[in-house]
Design goal:
Number of strands: 0
Largest sheet: none
Helix content: 55-70%
Distance between the termini: 50 Å
Shape: globular
Length: 109
């Protein structure tokens, strides 16, 4: 594969990731969630509620070929340090003793 073709494939992969991420945010927003949290992250955060646990399993199975196992957990872990999320979104992170940069966190909510 030529260098030029590798560059095109890389750009397509990046574009596909951004589109998938945007659709994940849109799905969560449509379902009355935060527009700053993905549905994947929400399903992991609320997996103590059966419907979210089932959605988490379905999402993890669907994206496993592309992202490997544990997609929803990684999605949650990646989003907890996002400065736009309200404080209530950090409860599970604190339970798991994840490191959160308190200087970047928004304190509303």
């Amino acid at each position: 594969m030529s260098v030029k073709r590798i560059g095109i494939v890389s750009r397509i992969n990046t574009w596909a990731f951004y589109v998938a991420y945007a659709l994940d945010l849109l799905a969560n927003s449509i379902l009355a969630g935060s527009p700053h949290e993905t549905l994947s992250s929400r399903c992991y955060r609320l997996d103590h509620i059966p419907v979210y646990r089932y959605l988490e399993i379905a999402i993890n199975v669907a994206v496993k070929p592309f992202d490997g196992p544990g997609h929803c957990r990684r999605s949650y872990e990646n989003i907890v340090d996002d400065k736009y999320l309200p404080w209530r979104f950090f409860e599970k992170a604190m339970q798991q003793a994840l490191i959160i940069d308190s200087n970047r966190r928004n304190t509303d909510g």
